[in-house]
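Sample intake — Extracellular solute-binding protein
Collected from: Paenibacillus protaetiae
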Amino acid sequence: MKKSSFSAALCTVMSAAVLLAACSGGGNKEASETPSADSGASASSSPAAASETPKDAKPTEITIMLPLNTSEAPPDTIKNELEKLTNTKLNYQFFPADTYEEKLNTAFATGSLPQVTYLKNSTTFLQMRSAIKDGQFWEIGPYMSEFPNLSKLKPDILDNTKVDGKLYSLYIGRPLARQGMIYRKDWADKLGIQPPKNVDELFAMAKAFTEQDPDGNGQKDTIGFADRNELVYGAFKTVSAWFGTPNYWGEQEGQLKPEFMFQNYIDTMDYFKKLRDGGYINQDFAATSKTDAVNLFTSGKAGIYVGGSMQDIDSLNKDLVKNVPDAVLDAESMIAGPDGKVQQWEIPGYNNVVLFPKSAIKDEAELKSILAFFDKMMTPEVANLMYWGIEGTHYTVVNGQAKVSDNKELVEREVKPFKDSVIGEAETNGMFQPLNELPGRIHVEQLIIENEKAGVKDPTAALDSATYAEKGVELQQLITDATYKYIYGQLDKAGFQKAIDNWRKQGGDKMIEEFNASYKK
C-alpha cells in the first residue's frame, strides 16, 4: 500500500517473539547520496560541550549492525579515525542489503540484535512497529534533551518516526521531495522543444523523442521514456503526483482512502496506457529492471528518465557521455496536472532509522553512552568524516564545499558504507554541501527546493494499522498487478474495480478503518 518496493510480499514482524522468515528483494536503493541543498549549517561549527569526552575516559564499546550497499565490507580506514574522534571501540556488522531483512529477522527472533540496529528503509521500520509497541526497543525521547546535537534533529521528521506518540529511533535524513524527470536537453534543443510545464507537454516530448529522430541517425530507434518495474521509484508515482493523486492516502468525503480509489490514479493509468500504446515508453517496462532501464537511457536510446531522485543526473551523465560524448542532460519537476496545479509527493524525510534493542542494552547508563556517540556523530567533524571521508584522500574542500576525489572506486569502497549511516542531514549536523559542477545537477538542487513548496505529505506516515503491518505489502501486490494489467490493456476499468473490491475483501476495508481511527485520535 505504501512505501514498499520489495519484489514479493514482505513478511511482517510478530509482536513478541519472532519475525517471519524475511523475503528477499529490492529495497529502497534510491536513497540520495547528497545532503539537502538548502543547508545553512557550517562545517566549522563548534561541537557542543556534551559531545566532548575526557581524555582519560575508557572507550565506549559499541556493536552496530547495518545494511551494506557496496559489493564488499569496507576496510578500517574510516572506522579507525571515527574511533579516535569519538573515543569508542566500534564493531561494525555489515550485511548485504539485498538479504538484509533475512539477517535482521533472524537476529530479532534469536534475541541477538546488537546495541545499535539500523533497519533497511521506511518499509522495514513500519513492519517493526508491533515489536516496538511490545517493548522490545528503548524509548529515547526522554533523553534527547540531554544531547545538544541530537536535539537539532528536525521535529517534523522525528514526529514521522514516532510510534504511539513516542520516539524510539534516530533518522538518516533525506530531502523531502527530490523526484522529477531527467531528459536529453540536446535532443529537445535539436527538435525545438521547451522544458515541459504540464503533463500534455511531457507527453508531446516523449512522442517527439520517439518519432522525430532526435539522435539524427536516420533510423527510428529511439523512445521517449525509459521506465522500470517499480510503481513508486519508477515513473508512475511521480507522474501520478503531477496528476493530483494523493500521496499513498488522501482524504475524500471526510475519510482517508488509498490513492488508487481516486480518479487521479485512473487518469495516470490512462496516461501510461496511451504512452505504451503509442510506443513512447519501453513496451516491457513492467518487467524491466532498474539496471536495464538505466542502460536504455545511458546507451542513448531513450530521452526521458524518471527515477527515485533527480540527483541521479550525475551518474546518468557520467555513463551517457561515454556512449554519446555530446549529450547534455537537464531536469524538470515543476510539471502541472490537468487542473494547472503543480504537486509533488513527499517522503517522510528519512531514508532509514536506527533502533536500540533492550535485549542488547542492559540499562539506562549504557543507552546514554551510546546516544553520546550519536551526539558526536552530529558534529561537523565526525559527520564529514563519515559522509565524505578523509580530507585530502577522499575529498577536498573547494569554496566551502566538498569535491569528491576522482578516485570514485576508492570512495565507494572506503566511505560509502559509513555514509549510509550518518544521522540527520546537512542542516542539522553541519557537514559540507557537495560541490556540484554539472549544470544539470545545479538545476536539480534548485528544483528540489521548489519541490518542497509543492509537496504533499502522506497522511498515514505516522499512523498505525495492524492490518497494514500484517498484510499491507501482500495486498498492495494486488493493486500493483492490476495497475500493470490495466496499462497493458489486459484489464478495463471494471476489471480494475474488481481488483479494488478484492483488496477490500481481503483486508483493505479493515485497513481503511484502522488508519481512520488512528487519524482521528
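Post-analysis note: The radius of gyration is 23 Å.
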